[in-house]
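Fig. S4 source data, part A: sequence.
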Amino acid sequence: MFDVVLVGADDSRTARRAVEAAVCLAEISKGELHIVTAFERHPHTDVSLPEEFRHLGDDGSIDALLQSLSFIAKERGIEPILHSGRGNPDDVIIKKAEEVHADIVVVGNRGMSGVRRVLGSVPNSVAHHAHCSVMVVDTTD
């Protein structure tokens, strides 16, 4: 049914629920699981550091996040493919879904209520612009 499942997640507790749902989908459909996270690079502004060291920490923390999220899948016997990208999370998720030919994108519903629902949010944007099925998981407490 879903040969390629992609989930977009950040470091929030609620995003982990979206990853858990994506793992279940991949497990049931025996599909490939991709976990993607996005970030804006903010170089360190500590002028005491040489220019070439001001970026340290960004990629390392993203790699650590992806490894942490991957354990959710690995506990269920699924080896996920991990991706990170720079930019707006919704743009990165949509672009990666197209690149890997995802059959479904899984995102949490965080940010889909109140003023953010009107102004836009990652789940809203993904739901409206992805070129595949989208599952919005209820991640509210």
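Fig. S4 source data, part B ends here. Residues 52-57, 112-120 have pLDDT under 50 and may be disordered.
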